[in-house]
């Protein structure tokens, strides 16, 4: 059976987004959506590799440091693991727009995952709430799921990570 990956955007998928033009800078500001740990655990149990791919331009802008981002991720992983859920990897683009090859909608973070894991793109997914997530997933060649009410050209649209995961697992048995 080929390895398969579910790539997850962070803000707007795992946790509530910051106010416009602001960033999640501390663990205090991080608020999980309901059911996220359960959803990720279902993916773990179904043998998916689960990776976060997140743009955090606030680092380039000096609003927060990479240490701040890493601390949030440490706490996030701790919290998830209390519920038996596990993230295999977290990829962060801390760069300014137009200065790198990893900021979504570019695919650099997906290629970082490809350097670590062997997986079948046809059985893999990108789940995101913004157009750059969907564009990046398409460019890389995985299936795309948009958690949004907006009109993105994703392969599937739904309202939450829980719904996205249920869809993935339902497709998996077909
Ligand atoms: Zn970057």
TrEMBL record:
Is Transmembrane set as a keyword in this record? Answer: no
Active site at which residues? 9, 11
What Gene Ontology terms describe where this protein resides (cellular component)?
cytoplasm
Does the UniProt entry include the keyword Ligase? no
Which Pfam family, giving just one, matches this sequence?
Answer: PNK3P
Q: Where is this site: Contributes to substrate recognition?
A: 103
Which sequence ranges are marked TM in the entry? none
According to UniProt, residues marked as the site described as Stabilizes the phosphoryl group are: 54, 104
Which InterPro entries does the protein's record reference?
A: HAD-like_sf, HAD-SF_hydro_IIIA, HAD_sf, Heptose_bisP_phosphatase, Histidinol-phos, PNK3P
Any GO molecular function: phosphatase activity
The residues that the entry says bind Mg(2+) are 9, 11, 129
Q: Which GO terms describe its biological process?
A: carbohydrate metabolic process
The protein's location, in the record's own words, is: Cytoplasm
**Annotated coiled-coil segments of the chain:** none
Q: What is its EC number?
A: 3.1.3.-
Cofactor(s) for this UniProt protein: Zn(2+); Mg(2+)
Which residues does the annotation say bind Zn(2+)? 93, 95, 100, 102
Keyword line: Carbohydrate metabolism, Cytoplasm, Hydrolase, Magnesium, Metal-binding, Zinc
Give the PANTHER family listed for this entry.
Answer: D-GLYCERO-BETA-D-MANNO-HEPTOSE-1,7-BISPHOSPHATE 7-PHOSPHATASE
Q: How does it assemble?
A: Monomer.
Which protein family is it in? Belongs to the gmhB family.
Under what name is this protein listed? D,D-heptose 1,7-bisphosphate phosphatase
């Amino acid at each position: 059976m080929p390895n398969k990956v579910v790539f997850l955007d962070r803000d707007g998928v795992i946790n509530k987004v910051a106010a416009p033009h602001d960033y999640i800078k501390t663990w205090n500001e991080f608020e999980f959506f309901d059911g996220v740990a359960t959803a990720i655990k279902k993916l773990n149990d179904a043998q998916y590799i689960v990776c976060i791919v997140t743009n955090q331009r606030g680092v380039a802008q000096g609003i927060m440091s990479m240490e701040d981002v890493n601390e949030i991720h440490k706490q996030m992983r701790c919290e998830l693991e209390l519920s038996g859920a596990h993230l295999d990897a977290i990829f962060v683009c801390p760069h300014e727009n137009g200065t790198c090859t990893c900021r979504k909608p570019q695919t650099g973070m997906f290629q970082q995952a490809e350097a670590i894991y062997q997986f079948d793109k046809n059985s893999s997914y990108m789940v995101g709430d913004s157009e750059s997530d969907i564009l990046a997933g398409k460019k890389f060649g995985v299936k795309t799921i948009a958690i949004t009410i907006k009109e993105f050209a994703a392969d599937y649209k739904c309202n939450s990570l829980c719904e996205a995961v249920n869809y993935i697992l339902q497709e998996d048995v077909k």
